[in-house]
Amino acid sequence: MRRQRMPTREQNKELVRRFIDEVFNKKNLDYAMEAISDDFVEHQVLPGMTPDKKGTMEQFRVLLEASPDMKAEIHELIASGDRVAIRGTYSGTDSGGFMPGMTPTNKPYSMEGIDIVRWGDDGRILEHWGILDVMGAMTQLGLIPAPGS
Hints:
This protein is an alpha+beta fold. The protein has one domain (about 10-140): Nuclear Transport Factor 2, Chain: A (Roll), CATH 3.10.450. The chain is about 30% helix and about 30% strand. It has four helices and five strands, in the order ααβαββββα. The protein has helices at about 10-25, 30-35, 55-65, 135-140; strands at about 35-40, 70-80, 85-95, 110-120, 125-130. A five-stranded mixed sheet has the order 1-5-4-3-2. A hairpin with a 5-residue loop joins strand 4 and strand 5 (about 125-130).
C-alpha cells in the first residue's frame, strides 16, 4: 500500500490563497465544491444552515447573492501542520440583504475575519473555524447603532 505524502505548510497556504481567490473573488462555487471534502465539518454555522458541506455551500451562495461584488483580501497566513490560520478582510456592497430576510441597504461594508482551515492529505478542506466582525459590518450598514450613540 502506497502512503500519500502530507502537504507542506507552504502548499497548504497556497491552497488557502487559491480557495479564497476562487470562491470570494471569482465567485467560483464549483471550485469550492471540489475543494471541500465530502465529510467536511463547519464550526461557524450561520442560523438555519447545517454544519456540513451542503450547509457550507449554501452559506457561500447566500453570502455571494447578498453581496455579488464581495472581495476578500488576505493580510496574513500562518501554517502549522495540517492547519492554516487566515487574517483577512471581506468587503462588498449590501445589495441583496446582509442576512437572509433583511432589506438591502445598498451601502458598502468591510468585515475583518480570522479563520482556521484544516486540510486533508488529499488537499481538500476537512474543517473550518472562523470569527467575522459581523457587528462592525452591521454598524457600517446602519442596521444597528454604533456603540455609544
